[in-house]
Amino acid sequence: MQRLRLLLLPALLIGAFSLAACGGGGESDEGKITSTIETAATSTDPAVCGETQTLKFMEQTAGGSGGEAEKACEEEAKAGENNPESVNVSKVQVEGEKAAANVEFEGGNFDGQTLEVALVKEGGDWKLNEFTGFAKFDPTQLVKVLAEKLEAEPSIKPQVAGCIVAGLEELPKAELEALVVENNTQPIVELAEGCE
């Protein structure tokens, strides 16, 4: 079950935000934030994870801690398999050294979803600091993506994957959202244990 716990949600989140550094020059904070997020969604450069994400963000999205979280981010960035075709950044709000924005995804793991993210300014550069929730959430799409990941995992029997997906389809919207926002895979693990 530990393999299942580590497999699903971090892959969703890391694939969404494999960041690349953005130049700034005289660009406004809002412009820098927008450029960083847009580039983040499509980058396959593993070196930028530590440069453009706080450790807090990497730990939240990767499900590990410290160097383990950064390594997971770098590996997912290099793979680039779950990157969206494009993102639309909106509702950028800057308050001193902190900011927030909404990120709407087209393609990739979060196709059709709009995520809320928090950023912080460190050393003059904006970095993603926290995934705070969904501005627009489509539970059917999330279950579809999780189903694809489960079915592609060779260590999970097809009948177990199908059973888990059926259970996910029955979860209330708030619980599905919490799976991602809190990176809490416990409900999936419990479903898997009941399916074996």
Question: If you had to describe this structure to a student in words, what would you say it looks like?
Answer:
With 196 residues, the chain is of the alpha+beta class. It has helices at residues 2-16, 29-40, 49-52, 55-62, 66-79, 139-152, 158-170, 173-181, 186-195, and strands spanning 86-95, 98-106, 114-122, 125-136. It has two domains: 2-136, Nuclear Transport Factor 2, Chain: A (Roll); 139-195. The chain has a four-stranded antiparallel β-sheet with strand order 1-2-3-4. Strand 2 and strand 3 form a beta hairpin. The longest helix is centred in the first third of the chain and has 15 residues, at 2-16. The protein is globular and about 55 Å long. The model is unreliable at 1-7 and 18-25 (pLDDT under 50).
Q: How does the SSE layout of this entry go?
A:
Blueprint: H1 2-16, H2 29-40, H3 49-52, H4 55-62, H5 66-79, E1 86-95, E2 98-106, E3 114-122, E4 125-136, H6 139-152, H7 158-170, H8 173-181, H9 186-195
Antiparallel strand pairs: 1-2, 2-3, 3-4
Helix pairs in contact: 1-4, 1-6, 4-5, 6-7, 7-9
CA distance, first residue to last residue: 11 Å
- The helix/strand class is alpha+beta
Q: State the CATH topology of the largest domain.
A: Nuclear Transport Factor 2, Chain: A
| SS field, number of helical segments | 9
Order of helix and strand elements from N to C terminus: HHHHHEEEEHHHH
Task: Tell the overall outline.
Answer: globular
What are the salient characteristics of this protein?
196 residues; alpha+beta; Nuclear Transport Factor 2, Chain: A; 2 domains; four-stranded antiparallel sheet; 4 strands; disordered N terminus
